[in-house]
């Protein structure tokens, strides 16, 4: 069974992803059609960051995935060499 | 059609539609604001897919379950196999 911690972390992830989706939709799709002097614009970064932040986050994620795979493969190769 | 081909062709079609919209090949003549929104649609798709996957991951984690019936069945089968093998003279 999923423990209490699993459930808290799982639903936390669901809420987090929903928040990201709603915030990003408002930022990218709705905000250009609202007057630029409206108060809502103070809650969002300039529009360039809507492109830069996801791309940078994606690159960092790919970097970490690559580092992890490299680490695991290097770790698994050493015992095989000793037996030879 | 493999899964990879399916995804690749879907992405290709989406990309062609997006290119048509960016270059305004249909001469819809929309405003600058619409053009800005259309330009950022690929990154929007990326963010949407990412948050959907994260949400799915969280939901599955929260509803993670033991398969007690399957464990019971497997245990029964192991016992059956052991009984069968020892009746044929194999020492376990």
From TrEMBL, chain A:
Membrane topology: Multi-pass membrane protein
Keyword Heme belongs to the record: no
Xref: InterPro entries: DPM2
Keyword check for Nucleotide-binding: no
Membrane-spanning parts: 12-34, 49-74
Key words of the record: Endoplasmic reticulum, Membrane, Transmembrane, Transmembrane helix
Pathway linked to the protein: Protein modification; protein glycosylation
Location(s), subcellular: Endoplasmic reticulum membrane
GO CC, alphabetical: dolichol-phosphate-mannose synthase complex; glycosylphosphatidylinositol-N-acetylglucosaminyltransferase (GPI-GnT) complex
Primary subcellular site in the record, as a coarse category: endoplasmic reticulum
GO biological process: dolichol phosphate mannose biosynthetic process; GPI anchor biosynthetic process
Domain of life: Eukaryota
Any one Gene Ontology molecular-function term assigned to this protein's record: enzyme activator activity
Family per similarity comment: Belongs to the DPM2 family.
The protein's role, per its UniProt record: Regulates the biosynthesis of dolichol phosphate-mannose. Regulatory subunit of the dolichol-phosphate mannose (DPM) synthase complex; essential for the ER localization and stable expression of DPM1. Part of the glycosylphosphatidylinositol-N-acetylglucosaminyltransferase (GPI-GnT) complex that catalyzes the transfer of N-acetylglucosamine from UDP-N-acetylglucosamine to phosphatidylinositol and participates in the first step of GPI biosynthesis. May act by regulating the GPI-GNT complex.
Subunit structure: Component of the dolichol-phosphate mannose (DPM) synthase complex composed of DPM1, DPM2 and DPM3; in the complex interacts directly with DPM3. Component of the glycosylphosphatidylinositol-N-acetylglucosaminyltransferase (GPI-GnT) complex composed at least by PIGA, PIGC, PIGH, PIGP, PIGQ, PIGY and DPM2. Interacts with PIGA, PIGC and PIGQ.
Name of the protein: Dolichol phosphate-mannose biosynthesis regulatory protein
Naturally occurring in which organism (per UniProt): Phascolarctos cinereus
Primary gene name: DPM2
Automatic annotation (TrEMBL), chain B:
One GO MF term attached to the UniProt entry: glycosyltransferase activity
UniProtKB keywords: Endoplasmic reticulum, Glycosyltransferase, Membrane, Signal, Transferase, Transmembrane, Transmembrane helix
Pathway entry: Protein modification; protein glycosylation
Locations listed in the record: Endoplasmic reticulum membrane
Transmembrane segments: 37-55
GO annotation, cellular component aspect: dolichol-phosphate-mannose synthase complex; endoplasmic reticulum membrane
Gene Ontology BP annotations: GPI anchor biosynthetic process
Membrane topology: Multi-pass membrane protein
Superkingdom of the source species: Eukaryota
InterPro entries: DPM3
Signal peptide: 1-22
Function: Stabilizer subunit of the dolichol-phosphate mannose (DPM) synthase complex; tethers catalytic subunit to the ER.
Similarity remark: Belongs to the DPM3 family.
Subunit organization: Component of the dolichol-phosphate mannose (DPM) synthase complex.
PANTHER family referenced in this protein's UniProt entry, alphabetically: DOLICHOL-PHOSPHATE MANNOSYLTRANSFERASE SUBUNIT 3
Name by which UniProt lists this protein: Dolichol-phosphate mannosyltransferase subunit 3
The species this protein was found in: Phascolarctos cinereus (Koala)
Lineage, uppermost ranks: Eukaryota, Metazoa, Chordata, Craniata, Vertebrata
């Amino acid at each position: 069974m999923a423990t209490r911690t699993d459930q808290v972390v799982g639903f936390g992830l669901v809420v987090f992803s929903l928040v990201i989706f709603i915030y990003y939709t408002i930022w990218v799709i709705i905000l250009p059609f609202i007057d630029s002097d409206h108060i809502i614009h103070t809650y969002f970064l300039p529009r360039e960051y809507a492109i830069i932040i996801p791309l940078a986050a994606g690159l960092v994620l790919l970097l970490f995935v690559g580092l992890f795979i490299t680490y695991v493969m290097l770790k698994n190769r050493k015992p095989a060499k000793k037996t030879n | 059609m493999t899964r990879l081909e399916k995804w690749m062709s879907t992405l290709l079609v989406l990309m062609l539609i997006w290119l048509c919209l960016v270059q305004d090949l249909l001469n819809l003549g929309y405003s600058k604001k619409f053009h800005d929104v259309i330009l950022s649609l690929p990154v929007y798709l990326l963010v949407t897919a990412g948050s959907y996957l994260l949400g799915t991951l969280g939901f599955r984690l929260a509803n993670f379950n033991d398969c007690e019936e399957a464990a019971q069945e497997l245990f029964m089968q192991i016992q059956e196999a052991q009984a069968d093998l020892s009746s044929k003279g194999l020492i376990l």
